[in-house]
Specification:
The protein is mainly α. It has 4 helices and no strands. Helices cover about 55% and strands about 0% of the residues.
Length: about 120
Amino acid sequence: MTGNEGYRVGQIGDNVNVYGGTGNIGQIKNTYNGPQDPQAVYREMIGLIQVLRGQVSAADREVIDESLETVHEGDAAPPGAVRRALGAIAGVAAVVGEVGLPVVEAVRRFLALLGG
């Protein structure tokens, strides 16, 4: 082998290839390998939900708002209510497509920390 064949000289950071589509924005990285602080994961999830809320229809915003009320109740909510509310939010996020993927992943991480 001569020269720098097979090596990317000067490459720093990630190499991302986009093979199609339109409106490609950002990159999702899943680097949640170790134990997580539930409060930090909760705050991140709520922040992502708020961002999504501004990008969906009025009907979907209503579902998110009603569900967030239940999520904010935490332990004071009836048994299973928070999980159902997070499921409703994740459902909206999944239906709207790529823009909702960070919310779906954040809900999964949070539920995993809660044990379910």
